[in-house]
Amino acid sequence: MVKVRAARAAEAEALTGLVMRSKAHWGYDAGFLAACAAELRIRPDEVTARRIVVAEDPQGTVLGLASLEGAAPLATLGLLFVEPSAIGQGVGRLLYRDVLRRAVEQGVRRLVIDSDPHAAGFYRAMGAVAAPTGPTAAAAAADTADAADAAADLSGHLVRFEAAPAPLADWARAWTGGGRAVHVGNVAEFNAQFGDSSLDREQAAAHHYSCLAAFYSPCPSALVLPRAVPAGWIDLVCRQLGWTGVEVYDGLVERGPGLVDAVRARSALAARLTGAGEPLVPWGLTRPFGLLTGRPWRPGELRHESKAAAHGLFERILAEGGHPGIVLPTQVRAATRWAAARLLAARARAGQSTVLKSEHGVGGSGTTVVTAGQVRAAGGARAVLRRLPRGPLLVEEFVEGPPDPGAARDLTYDGFVDAAGEVHEVGAALMDVTAGAYRGATVGPGAVPEWAEKPILAFGAAVGRELAASGYRGWFDVDFVADAAGRLAPTETNLRLTGPSIAFMVAARLDALRGAGHLVRIADRVELGARLPEAQLDELCADLARACADLGAVFVPAIPTGAFDPAPWLGVLVAAHSLEALDAAEALVRSGAAAVGAMFDAPTTAAP
Question: What's the pTM value of the predicted model, to 2 decimals?
């Protein structure tokens, strides 16, 4: 394994030779290289002052070097050169990430990079953002190391980038102590606690979504999964997110919800997972998880997973005042289907739309929006109800959305209650909800409209305090819809991890790995044009990762197992530093995924 260490003064001459060989790799002529030689030379007395490190292989061969120059809060990446024979083997990536890590430790918050044009694609792929040139940029550069400035003046053709080194977010450190964690994909097990008829008995979808266990914290040590996953999937995820040494325990239960029971039945595995001194993070709390970890099981903690209980919680908070931007839709729990039909019919006669909800549900399952016209077309309210899952129904006022179809409509708050009962704010996200079904979410700077962010954060924190007082410990979210007047209506709480929470975890990891300011979008379902063998799926994902990197974006396959369904699909994450790049990356991924079927549609030409 290649490792990074501090360079030694005695290596200065050899390192200068490496720099010149690396520069010559790009085809520069002898005259240009001779002109650069003085500025690229590394002197023995500069090695420590310029904070030069080297990457070396297990045999002690130096493969590359990098320097971090200047003083906080502004510094420069003065040198980053790789031995030509090692280019393309990940040495540059290792060195760049080491520079960012050291910059964070030294309090640097702005890193200037003057790149050779041939290396511009590398820095773009690593998350650096192209910086404008001109008087302002020149003034900033004057505060960085003299060597980098002189080299820029000499070449006159360097491309300027910047990065914003950032520590792991405070909430992420509080979530798992800032270290590695064991992730347990017990999605089906969590859902099975709620005997709601809107939930799939076989929990097939839940087993797909268990793949999101890869992202339950910013840095996993092990993944515990019910179904077998493609061998190449975790390799690519680890590469994209800079993880090493992640153990995968998959195929433990192909059907049914008993993942943690399957772990407990394997004493050696249970001991490995619980004995490493690392936190175990589940999708949500369950009795088997409590038995595995020794955590007291208190089923009452989850009572606000009920949509009716959550509505009552919202009502109590609003009765205390202090949330002028929040309104609560009326909700009635119908004692019988006949009572629900009467309520629905009365609202339809008044020309009103209605939301019909099961007590529990995930991803929009069990929630149906019915217009007055749909009631009439179906032949009445009872005919509508016959098409819905059996079980108790909540009849809720429908909140009309903003008149602009492009305006923000569905939003969410994420936070968690730690073991001591302290509430931690994670943030707000914009969700993609189509026909009542969750399709994905976007987190990061500017994802949520400015007018909505403050009331969401304030109300979400209030919900967190109530949950903490009720004894709940763990992750939670609060979902909202925006009304036509620009107010927000809370609709439910989820006492578990969610799709948006996954996006927050990945954003925290990428900010620490590549620099602050990432927007991350999770798309639950990207249709594939054809089912592919595992090797071809790996190849497609690798191609999409490279294509996104060319845009300065990151592609991470989040749910690979859907690719083997009869109607194949992928869950994906894309990340970038701007909404424009994020949209472009998503469009690229969707078109690339859809195009995989084209090879099977190509016409064949008969031989003459």
Answer: 0.92
